[in-house]
Design a protein that fits this description.
Helix content is 40%, strand content 12%. The protein contains 16 helices and twelve strands. The termini are far apart.
Length: 511
């Protein structure tokens, strides 16, 4: 080891002068103009122009073009407020506008004005919802909304439990965790090593999060059994029971079935009452992933689609999907009052002290996997207060009305072919068959499906380049690529359905 005198010494760090505007607090003299200009730009460009039918859904640039156009670099010196306002404008300009009426691409859309104000209010207050001490309003608000949602499902309003989660995937993860604890509570301390192999069941059309969350929690993807679906995409309860019996014959322990109410692609609703009978017979936890279709529970016309959901042990329901609350707004609901706390509580003494001066049962954060957590409840609560349950019901009914109209129109239109003749949800899956593929000779050609498979991607490219529409496509098992229109923006009407049909015809007319 070298002597102290011989050791290399780094030259002293030359500190740059502190910038004038580095403190993280608003100053009316410094920031009033900037904040108001930024908010005005957001309102005018993102909220109003971004939802205007005359605007583009997206102004498309390739990754290289966008990188050259938008300065994303991070430097030692900060930018002026004028340049920051320019970045606000550019960010809006080159972003996809999910609030645009013709963004029918994913299971989220729209810019709800009340949800938006609720989201902004939550961001301005910047709470973390884990104790009543730091989030008194939001703690009570969350319990109120979750209780009302449980009542809508058919769970006990007061006796059950629930949480707001960062997305439906995490909500499904909570279901797996609670099911495991309910079946084998000793695993919380002992872990799964050396224990009996546990198996989760879901349908082959279920959301991929079931498998991902099972992997995350140590089950292993091979222990997620995929149950066959029928021609409508609904779980086959007979195949479910056969697979459960096979699991028992192998010496494994079936612990949970995750049914789906509103599958991602076809919008199918699994037969919950039949699935419940299997779960009851083999003492399995029954979860319903109603992230997409849960909104139908608020409609007296359509809640029959989820008949039997009240028998489940837990439910995932995402208000940011069919109910069009701002991202993200997802819930996990359960009929069991203590399982969330029993499964997840760590009793951190620095946060969840039991000798506080108020009722610490309102310190709900210990049942969450998160510590810091946004007040996602606020935007949905504000929407619900503004519209009432009747307004939310009217929203749902309009979505289904638009879906029925669109389905009826394309079923009689040359070039359009439905994947499902009678879709259950507001997903409408269909092929657009160009004129060049409509003849009997073209249809009988051995390469017909291969050629049809290429149509939707090419039409998607054209609509993105044009910015006139965004509707997704996908294959499903042996089926070639087809379009999937998803409707959850209740500002659309029948004229918009006509526009979408006619625009698809324009985009594919020469293929």
């Amino acid at each position: 080891m070298p002597a102290a005198a011989e050791m290399l010494v780094e030259p002293p760090f030359e500190r740059s002068p502190a910038p004038d505007d580095f403190q993280s607090a608003p100053d009316p003299q410094k920031h009033d103009h900037f904040i108001r200009e930024a908010v005005d730009t957001i309102i005018n460009e993102a909220v109003y122009k971004g939802t205007n039918r005359e605007s583009r859904v997206v102004e498309w640039l390739s990754p290289d073009e966008l990188s050259a156009r938008l300065d994303l670099s991070l430097d030692r010196a900060g930018l002026s407020q004028e340049k920051l306002l320019s970045l606000v404008e550019q960010t809006i300009r080159y972003s996809v506008k999910p609030g645009h009426p013709y963004f029918v691409n994913q299971l989220f859309s729209s810019v709800d004005p009340y949800g938006l104000v609720g989201q902004w209010l939550g961001d301005a207050l910047n709470p973390s919802v884990y104790t009543y001490e730091v989030a008194p309003v939001f703690t009570l608000m969350e319990e109120t909304v979750l209780g009302e949602m449980r009542a809508v499902v058919g769970f006990p309003r007061e006796g059950g439990d629930g949480i707001f989660c960062p997305g439906g995937s995490m909500a499904n993860g909570y279901a797996i965790s609670c099911a495991r604890h309910y079946k084998a509570p000793h695993l919380k301390t002992q872990g799964m090593s050396g224990q009996r192999r546990m198996v989760v069941f879901t349908s082959e059309d279920a959301h991929y999060s079931i498998k991902k969350m099972a992997v995350l929690q140590g089950f292993g993807s091979d222990n997620v059994r995929l149950v066959k679906t029928d021609a409508r995409g609904r779980m086959d309860a007979r195949d479910l029971e056969a697979q459960v019996k096979d699991t028992l014959d192998q010496g494994a322990l079936p612990i949970m079935v995750s049914a789906t109410s509103g599958t991602t692609v076809l919008g199918a609703f699994d037969p919950l009452e039949e699935i419940y009978d299997v779960c009851a017979k083999y003492e399995m936890w029954m979860h319903v992933d109603a992230a997409w279709g849960g909104g139908a529970l608020l409609s007296r016309r359509h809640r029959h689609l989820l008949k039997g959901i009240e028998r489940a042990d837990s439910v995932t329901w995402n208000p940011h999907k069919m109910l069009a609350a701002p991202q993200q707004c997802s819930t996990f609901l359960t009929r069991h009052a203590s399982v969330l706390t029993d499964a997840h509580a760590a009793n951190a003494a620095y946060l969840f002290q039991k000798d506080k001066f108020y009722d610490t049962s309102y310190d709900t954060g210990d049942k969450h996997l998160q510590c810091g957590r946004r007040a996602d409840v606020l935007k949905f609560w504000f929407m619900w207060k503004a519209k009432g349950t009747d307004g939310l019901e009217a929203h749902i009914d309009k979505l289904f009305d638009n879906a029925t109209y669109f389905k009826n129109m394309i079923s009689e239109r040359p070039g359009f072919e439905l994947v499902l003749e009678q879709p259950e949800c507001t997903n409408i899956c269909f092929w657009y068959v160009p004129a060049s593929l409509r003849s009997a000779e073209a249809r009988s050609h051995p390469d017909y499906n291969h050629t049809l498979h290429k149509v939707a991607p090419k039409m998607k490219e054209r609509m993105i380049q044009k910015g006139s529409l965004m509707v997704t496509y996908q294959p499903l098992r042996d089926l070639p690529n087809f379009f999937r229109l998803v409707l959850q923006n209740s500002s659309l009407d029948h004229k918009d359905m006509d526009y979408i049909i006619e625009e698809l015809e324009r985009l594919g007319s020469d293929l």
